[in-house]
């Protein structure tokens, strides 16, 4: 590995760790970097999934204050994410590499779209929550409605499948569905998101480590960078302008789509 490749991969790991902790979609930074340096998309995905595990754990620990009182809820959500991650890894390892290389530009494009529309979704969720609170006399419940519990768990499972197959923007997806179906402050939802994303990455990364093509030097560089990034994201993430983070993600994601499409031409 060329030394400056190693430096850029480590820096991408730092930035991805920060982004994953604050909003999600850090993979849209690291994945294009790895592909640009010549790593096959499947190897880039599996190495990325393992390398970013420490950062997601660091980010989840950094949000421990927001997670107080949510242990029971996490006991319900974590199995759904874990099972989904297993399903996603099975898909990645079962389908031919050509299938992954064909669908990954679509997945990256979907992730970019989700990042772009996230502010509108968040605004809609906030208005919905305020309306619900007004109907309840100004008090919004802590638990999702019973009729929405099955739907919530199903969607968390499906996001886990997506995350196990291709990790980009799973955090954005989780924030969207929890925001629509749960009545919690955004920072508490972000804490739950970090835990569930960490679970998906740990489960998928563990499986990949034994049966998938991995670049361990890449894993080491991403892991070191993401640990620092996850800590920084939890420490100062709420002070960073969301538009700046979102703009970087969108630009990098669009560049990734163009590059991946050109590889197939």
From TrEMBL:
Main location: membrane
Localization in the cell: Cell membrane
TM segment ranges: 40-62, 74-94, 106-126, 150-179, 218-237, 243-262
Topology relative to the membrane: Multi-pass membrane protein
One Pfam family per UniProt: TauE
Family, similarity comment: Belongs to the 4-toluene sulfonate uptake permease (TSUP) (TC 2.A.102) family.
Protein name: Probable membrane transporter protein
Organism: Prauserella endophytica
